[in-house]
Amino acid sequence: MSEAVCAAIDWGTTRFRAWLLDAAGEPVAERRSDEGMSALKREQFAGVLEMHLAAMGAGASLPVVICGMAGSRQGWLEAPYVDAPARFDQIFASAVAVPGVRREVRIVPGIAERDPSRPDVMRGEETQLAGIAATEGGGALLVCMPGTHCKWVELAGDTVTGFTTWMTGELYSVLSQHSILRHAVGGAPVRITADGPVFLDWLEDGLTHPADAASRLFRIRASTLLTGMEPAQAAAALSGLLIGSEVGSARALFGTGRKTVLVGSGQLGALYGEALRRAGFNASPVDGDKVVRAGLAEAARRNFGGTAGRNA
Amino acid sequence: MSEAVCAAIDWGTTRFRAWLLDAAGEPVAERRSDEGMSALKREQFAGVLEMHLAAMGAGASLPVVICGMAGSRQGWLEAPYVDAPARFDQIFASAVAVPGVRREVRIVPGIAERDPSRPDVMRGEETQLAGIAATEGGGALLVCMPGTHCKWVELAGDTVTGFTTWMTGELYSVLSQHSILRHAVGGAPVRITADGPVFLDWLEDGLTHPADAASRLFRIRASTLLTGMEPAQAAAALSGLLIGSEVGSARALFGTGRKTVLVGSGQLGALYGEALRRAGFNASPVDGDKVVRAGLAEAARRNFGGTAGRNA
User: Fold this and answer.
1) Which range of residues forms the domain containing residue A76?
2) Which positions in chain A touch B71 (Cβ < 8 Å)?
3) Fewest beta carbons less than 10 Å away: which of A141, B53, B265, B307?
4) Nearest C-alpha neighbor of B58 from the set B21, B12, B98
């Protein structure tokens, strides 16, 4: 097994993911847990980190680089946003050192769009984007990053030139849990598949009529009452309508002519892949874990140097 | 005081409103409470009704007509939907008699749109619409009915020809209570005014870009983080964006050329009034209580006759 040169942590709101990376940026150990930012008090972050490092066999002086919501005001230590347009070297040079810990720990900042006509923020995605820029070989890219708050990002070489967030994932969550649609969708988790006819029908509906999403949502409720739509169908309809509306809206903003990358694997990646294809995007999928590791490895090199932090 | 000829009840999901009406349809007594359909078990409806009737001094044989969610499957007794297009005489003739109670009690059914390309339902609004048709003197009307589930209705004389629901009120509620926007909006109730600059800015944004609402929502979160937007401003922004998106979407569907009526008074009516005006609609406001009473009076006349149910 290669020697670890740094620990790389993606510390989000709900999830903690850690790797030890070798000099080539390849993972030599991995840990995942639910100890996300929102589950921790400020004074717990150091202990949780050391516990996972020990479990991976990290040396006492191995340096650590962190991205994600751990760097928010409500997280471990605030890493103030870098303003867009933002270069990756500038972002990584602005990583904040955590004081009073037993090893070097740096937190990568997010990016803020401060144009008052389109204020926006990201935290964590900037590191994935650095990984994408490194592996996709520069040039202009449109990057679709599905999730709770889905980001569409315009990249030019090593610079994030602009980005826009859609609240699609969170809309799915709050509508299916807290609105009248909870009766339609039911409580049980459902596996929605990208080739299901209900998902595809409602996806098309969203793509074609993104301006009418707030009314078409109620058709899911009406379908339950009038035609006995089942919970699994209602979940597929809600997912299709919301993803379709997002992609339809994004298509009108960005067009489909650019080289496009879709971040994500698994079920959600497949749903967005189908949505992008039907909307006319020619998107290449990339694995979210892989690109965040590549970005964190680059952040570690910039902060600790190529050989700094060998696993002593 | 005139003699009551019937009791008229608007029994919704969260609110109970009752009047005793005289032969001219004018209220001679009134009661309001939070004993909505969702707060009651089936066996409680009769007791709640009799308690309020007694408090209003209703005679033992005074007949009662009810509209709203009390007639839903989860309510007191299901009054099956009448299909659109639906005439008011047909709707009122389909009122369902509640068995096993000490007086005549009939529940007005809602309307179902069963066209599979646009399934929709209403319950309670059909009675307000009958009141509007009676007072506005026939002809073609477009009716905007703000609320948790806002309805836009096409009326032709005494017939509901079509309608569409927007989930605007519920979106405001679930987003401000359960999404990340709860941090922006805060917990305290806010009085949003139709001439506030933040409301108007975001209203314009929604009217102009209804397809982008799911992304513009996140700008409220970003504004909190980047420019210190205050909770009262965030609430006004959310309200403006959602109402603007609805009215922008409805304008594209219905056009602004028709004679238009806006149901509602108070704060919400004022916000929608401003939205309709800026969208180019020339809408006349009508009072929701007044038109539901007019509709219930008409339902009582059709069910119990002009002199039936005198307050014996």
Assistant:
1) 4-136+295-304
2) none
3) B307
4) B21
